[in-house]
Amino acid sequence: MATLAVYLYFGAGLLGKQFTDVDTYDELDLYIPIFLFLEFSFYMGWLKVAETMVNPFGQDDDDFELNWMIDRNIAVSYMIVDEMHNGE
Known about the structure:
By secondary structure, the protein is mainly alpha-helical. The chain has two domains: 1-54; 58-88. The protein is built from three helices and no strands.
């Protein structure tokens, strides 16, 4: 959803930040929106960083099995709580 919002923002920005002068339609306007390009590079960089942070350990075979580790830690913590509760 954030990716779509960034793309739509810059699509609208390219159309909305064009210089239009009603009196001079005969001349070619070569205005380049430099700050829009800078915004685009920063926002796209942040978007790629955010996409990487969704799964920081990756999907390779050499990576940590994060789901297994979380499931095991939750199971061990439930066993500890059950043991403490049954011990009283």
